[in-house]
């Protein structure tokens, strides 16, 4: 219980702080657009126990929709929903104690962890205009991620295997996201090029494996479209 309380305290404070900033701005209905993006991810495990699961990167996909509020010339907010594939790959190691020798570690297989999450990002953005039609947005903020799929597959001592890992992977993950989006405005819509990194700030293992500290680290590159809803002259 103490682990659960400590793991949600910082994300909760960050989310409440950002909501307190977003709501007054949203009430004024400034520049507002709806965005849809899709792209690829490269993820790996971090933390002191990452070697237990595998530290090599795994590629996946991400797709999402969000709304963006530009409340001032240099400041905006994004919140939305995103499906993101995460995980990692690595060797399965076995350590044997041999009398009169040091412990011997050998590779007895390999595994790929396939984790999929629904994420709810709430981000603050600094905006730099590049002429009349283009701008760059730098993002920072928390995301709450809910696990919707967790499995591992590979080979163990020459035999293929596939197993569900939701018994050891937490149902929730709290992530701090940083990134940038390049936006180019057309008459009826905007073109987006998005680059982000999400760093897990809590271990993704359940209390049944709380002795392991494993966190998600995910880079993504996406392309998308944004559709102006309000506040635009065009």
Describe the structure concisely.
The protein is mainly beta and 234 residues long.
SSE diagram, text form:
Layout: H1 2-27, E1 31-46, H2 50-53, E2 58-72, E3 75-96, E4 104-130, E5 134-156, E6 159-164, E7 172-185, E8 190-200, E9 215-230
Antiparallel strand pairs: 1-2, 1-9, 2-3, 3-4, 4-5, 5-6, 5-7, 7-8, 8-9
Mean pLDDT: 83
Indicate the percent of residues in helices. 10-25%
C-alpha end-to-end distance? 53 Å
H/E element sequence: HEHEEEEEEEE
Q: How many DSSP E strands?
A: 9
CATH class: Mainly Beta
Please tally the helical runs, counting DSSP H or I stretches of 4 or more residues: 2
For this structure, the CATH topology is Porin
Strand residues, percent: over 45%
Globally, the shape reads: elongated
Descriptive notes:
This protein has 234 residues and is mostly beta strands. The chain has one domain: Porin (Beta Barrel), CATH 2.40.160.20. Helix content is 13%, strand content 64%. It has two helices and nine strands, in the order H-E-H-E-E-E-E-E-E-E-E. It has an eight-stranded antiparallel β-barrel. Strand 3 and strand 4 form a beta hairpin. The termini are far apart. The N terminus is likely disordered.
Which terms summarize this structure?
Porin, mainly beta, eight-stranded antiparallel β-barrel, 234 residues
